[in-house]
Design goal:
This protein is mainly alpha-helical. The chain is 73% helix and 1% strand. The protein has helices spanning 2-36, 42-67, 74-77, 79-95, 101-107, 111-122, 127-130, 133-151, 160-186, 192-214, 232-235, 242-268, 270-276, 280-292, 298-325, 343-346, and strands spanning 332-333, 349-350. The chain has a two-stranded antiparallel ribbon. The longest helix is centred in the N-terminal third of the chain and has 35 residues, at 2-36.
């Protein structure tokens, strides 16, 4: 009887490693994008990153087509989630050209509010959860924390490019919430790996198309990064040039981060995994301070913490009330497709009816 227990323990520890890897990978994305904002335009950044990510996931699609194992209807089902994801990714990337990563990451907690409103409209089973006092307390904490983080900076009310960046961050939060809801509505019953591979391909087509039309020299400006050193801070850490840095951002954040997160969900569950990734704004802010010199005020840290606590409370109430609704058994999970940096918005337990 010892072997199963040992295997279970190893699986849990591997799940812990994977959720930490996902947390670190997604925390790196705002840092990559902020660095890249100084060397290429956002259309080019998104086009190359998502194009490379689609190449990473392409074997799943190719093998599925060759073996005729792709679920019937998955191409049609994935269209709307992909279209919404494209819009969210555009404004998310643009936000990094306006504000620093730490403020942006705390501001993205607003996606929880949009997800709640959308869920109340789209899913009758969620309305009982949303009416819970604890759940609404979490929503209010997210709103208070997000607004406070934006307004508590040294410069007071954001104006100019900072205001534009904040608006882009909020728009990205709304887009990511819409993406999560579309995934839940359209992709339920499809496998997560197949679903994300198809959505990655669709998103890459959109991002590359926008890059060719709107990017600097149709996106070819990224090739100018070949042979250019990363800079003094990264010279001893990354043994490649700025173009390699661009591709690395796609590999770590978009491709491998999702693989690690999926495995963590399988071994640790949705509640634990999505709760851990809520630590992302803190990691991003600390790293942004060290790398870019971004300084958040004490009040911004306090309000940011309030927003994260509210997000965790929302997840916990959603998880446990969904578990109770399923009769105390294991709640079924729909195909989790967490968008970059806001994975928890798409990760929720739901009852199989």
């Amino acid at each position: 009887m010892a072997a199963p227990s040992s295997d279970s323990s190893r699986a849990r520890w591997l799940g812990v490693v994977c959720v930490l890897a996902a947390l670190i990978g997604w925390s790196s994305i705002p840092l990559f994008l902020r660095y890249l904002s100084h060397v290429i335009d956002p259309w080019t950044s998104n086009g190359w990153r998502y194009g490379f990510s689609a190449l990473f996931w392409s074997p799943v699609v190719v093998l599925g087509l060759a073996r005729r194992s792709l679920p019937q209807g998955i191409w049609r089902a994935a269209f709307w989630p992909s279209a919404i994801n494209c819009g969210a990714q555009v404004v998310f990337c643009w936000a990094h050209y306006k504000i620093d990563p730490g403020l942006l990451s705390f501001g993205l907690r607003s996606n929880m509010v949009f997800a709640v409103l959308g869920a109340a409209i789209m899913f009758a089973s969620e309305r009982r959860v949303i009416r819970s006092p604890a759940f609404m307390t979490g929503v209010l904490l997210v709103v208070l924390g997000t607004v406070g983080t934006v307004l508590a900076g040294d410069d007071g009310l954001p104006i100019g490019s900072t205001l534009a960046g904040v608006l882009f961050a909020v728009a990205a939060g709304a887009g990511f919430a819409g993406y999560a809801l579309a995934v839940r509505k359209c992709m339920h019953g499809y496998g997560a790996i197949h679903s994300f591979a198809i959505i990655s391909l669709y998103t890459a087509i959109g991002m590359v198309g926008l890059m060719v039309v709107l990017g600097d020299r149709g996106g070819l400006s990224a090739l100018d990064l070949i042979g250019k050193p990363i800079g003094e801070a990264g010279a001893g850490v990354f043994p490649f040039d700025q173009f390699g840095f661009l591709l690395l951002s796609a590999l770590i954040g978009i491709a491998l981060g999702h693989v690690a997160y999926y495995y963590a969900i399988a071994k640790l569950g949705v509640a634990v995994s999505s709760g851990v990734v809520q630590l992302q704004p803190f990691l991003v802010s600390i790293a942004s301070l060290a790398i870019f010199g971004e300084v958040l005020t004490g009040w911004q840290w306090s309000f940011g913490t309030v927003a994260v606590v509210g997000a965790v409370l929302i997840l916990l109430v959603q998880h446990f009330m969904g578990h109770d609704a399923a009769g105390g058994g294991e709640a079924m999970e729909y195909a989790d497709l967490p968008p970059d940096h806001v994975a928890a918005a798409a990760a929720s337990a739901c009852e199989e009816r």
